[in-house]
Every structure is written in structure tokens, then in C-alpha cells.
Specification:
This protein has one domain. Helices cover about 75% and strands about 0% of the residues. It contains five helices and no strands.
């Protein structure tokens, strides 16, 4: 039951997030750190990757690799969360507590991805 709930959470998180990259491209591009070239294109690519990863979680045959890919993705976007926190004044509409929560929640999300995507122990 918990595994299914975690799987649903991870699927919704990445699928909705990926859709958000296409619906609010300019907003997502505005938080890409300045050292990353082509922010709009990066946002569109990462949105597609989030959707693909979320969909791949639905099939047991691709769930393990999707989990590892989404863990790598979550690690790779952590600098965005740090950058936003370092410049919290630019994101007053989000609020500093929410920025901290995003950063602190990242390891929890990674743990949930790992738990739902690892092979089940033999019964």
C-alpha cells in the first residue's frame, strides 16, 4: 500500500512538473542559474525528461532505470534550489520558508523514488 502511494506521489510530482515546464516555460526559465546556457531549451528538455521518467515508472520493466534517472535528475536540479535560496529576494512571491522546504525535501523525494523503484524483495 505504501509503495503504491509513493509511486503515485512520484509519478504525479514528475508528470505534473514536466507539464509545468511546457505551460509555464518562462517562469521555469527565470530560475535557471545564469551559468546554464539556453535556459528556455533546458526547461523544455527537462520537462520532457520528467514526463518520460514519470511514464517509465508505470511499467515494472522500466521502473528501476526510471527511478535511477529520476534520482539523477533530482540531484542535478538541486543547484537550482540552492541558487534560488541564495537569491531569495528575487523569489519573494514563493517565500523563503518554501525555498528552504524545497531544498530540505529533496533528499526525502530521492529516498521515496529509490524505495518505489527498487525491485521488490522475494516473498
Amino acid at each position: 500500500m505504501w509503495r503504491l502511494a509513493g509511486l503515485a506521489l512520484v509519478f504525479i510530482w514528475f508528470f505534473a512538473g514536466g507539464i509545468g515546464h511546457f505551460v509555464a516555460t518562462d517562469t521555469f526559465a527565470s530560475v535557471v542559474p545564469p551559468y546554464v546556457p539556453y535556459p528556455r531549451e533546458v526547461v523544455l528538455l527537462t520537462g520532457a525528461l520528467e514526463i518520460a521518467g514519470a511514464l517509465a515508472l508505470l511499467w515494472p520493466r522500466t521502473r528501476r532505470i526510471a527511478g535511477w534517472a529520476l534520482i539523477a535528475f533530482a540531484i542535478c536540479v538541486t543547484p537550482v534550489h540552492i541558487e534560488m535560496l541564495l537569491h531569495a529576494e528575487r523569489y519573494a512571491y514563493i517565500g523563503t520558508p518554501a525555498l528552504w522546504l524545497r531544498l530540505v525535501a529533496q533528499p526525502v523525494l530521492i529516498w521515496i523514488i529509490w524505495m518505489v523503484s527498487k525491485p521488490r524483495a522475494p516473498a
